[in-house]
Amino acid sequence: MTDAADRAPLHMAEGHMIGWQDEAGDTHRGTLFAAFAALAGGQAHSFPALRPHQREPWHAFTVQVAALALIHAGTDTLPTGEAAWRDLLLALTPDTPEAWELVVDDWSKPALLQPPTATPADKAAYKNRLPTPDTLDMLVTAKNHDLKQARMVGAGDEHWLFALVTLQTTEGFLGAGNYGISRMNGGFATRMSLGIRPAGGAGHAFRRDVERLLADARARPNRRTGTPLLWTVPWDGALPLDYDKLDELYVEICRRVRLRRTSTGIEALTAGSKAPRVAASELKGRTRDPWAPMKADGSTSHTPTGAGFGYRQMANLLDKTKITLPPLAYADPADAPDGLSIVAAALVRGQGKTEGLHRRTIRTHGARRDTDVRPIAIERIGEVARKRADEGFEASRRLSRALISLVQGGPERARLDDDSAKKKTERWLARFNDAVDGIFFDAPFWDEVSGVTDNPRMAWRITLRDIARDVFDVAAEAAPGTEVRRIPARARAGSLLHYEMKKWVEDAEYGE
């Protein structure tokens, strides 16, 4: 490693490209290698320059690179020194140390997340000039309204790095010549992340996931190996790479991009391509992504919707009959006994639009199953979540009938197929679901997971009934009409709700 390290680019070796904060909030700056050391040592609690949608791509990038480097070096020990990480990363690219440099003038050599040209003539294809990192990034905004475009004037190196990581490892299809990544189900899908995270910030999450990937690699000595870093391979925009010749943990790129320094900073030049970088469309996201949930039938990776990660969506994700969890979503005996969270995150993509950045963190409250303080299996968490979500849906269905009766004026028999009435009740049902979502994973949930409560089903139905009553009361006060009409409508619809809920709660008197 020494020879490669001696030839390391000065900018990456001696500069202070990346800033991070420790747990006390103090800011530090250093090279890419220093950032890896700070992550491994737990000193990097957060990276202030990261935009919210860049958090998960940066985490995945650093974890994959670190795991690849350690597997290649044949060690399971994460060093905490900058020099050691410098040697490890350079050993992944012994013939091209420039691969860790953000700007390389010689385009026949790779730069960080930027492939080299295949021939000198290829440089002419890079005609599209992007002056700021947010024009390079993957966010699709509407007419400059949602988020102002090209506003990061005078951006630093780290802003360009984070934009590159996000673009190259999470972007989808965006018109002719702009293909997306292989690690998701189609060009308009989303690379989502689902995993277990310890308390303590970015460094602890990094170390935990790297150690799990190293353990997995050690347990499977015949794991597929091949090209680990796709930006080190020349790309003319035409010939895709064979998926079967890539390392299982490959860090990919999907666009032809090169950065160059100007008198005012950095700008990006981009070129289109005639084919995606990886020939894997038939896999539909089945690429062994450590954070990607898969459909239970094994057909495709899971693609979240713009609905985000409400309690029903989380219950589906944790339901083993619907989803196969990714490796890093399982608790491990080596995990800390307390402070674990389940984290789901995705920047949901649509056809030519962005459907929201969604993130849900569910703290497990140290829930345990046995006296050996082993983490409760996530399948058990999913089982309880599915049952409680089904109950939530049933409660909302009963509330819906009462609300329809209310807006119809309290008839003897409500017309449940009245689309106009249904539309008027939507905001109240949304209010109900928001209230349920706010308490869904509270302490009673974990008591049920741990099996320490008697008849949790009845207790949950009572909670849902009370929320439904509160929502109904607010809706009744806001219902249009004169007081003469509102009072009987409220009385009849309220009686319907009482009847709907009373028997439902009583049915759970003896548990399941």
Task: Describe the fold and architecture.
The protein is an alpha+beta fold. Helix content is 39%, strand content 13%. A three-stranded antiparallel β-sheet has the order 3-9-8. Helix 4 crosses helix 8 (202-219). The chain is elongated, with a radius of gyration of 26 Å. It starts with a helix and ends in a 6-residue tail after the last helix. Mean pLDDT is 90; it is low at 1-14 and 141-148.
Unreliable residue runs: 1-14, 141-148
Distance between the first and last residues' Cα: 62 Å
How much of the sequence lies in strands comes to 5-15%
In N-to-C order, the SSE pattern is HHEEHHHEHHEHEEEEEEEHEEEHHHHH
Instruction: Figure out the total of helices.
Output: 14
Summing up helix and strand content along with how strands pair, one would put the structural category as: alpha+beta
For the largest sheet, list the strands in their spatial order. 3-9-8
The geometry reads as elongated
Helix fraction, binned, reads 25-40%
Q: What is the residue-mean pLDDT, rounded to a whole number?
A: 90
Instruction: Please give the largest β-sheet.
Output: 3 strands, antiparallel
How many E strands?
A: 14
For the CA atoms, what is the radius of gyration?
26 Å
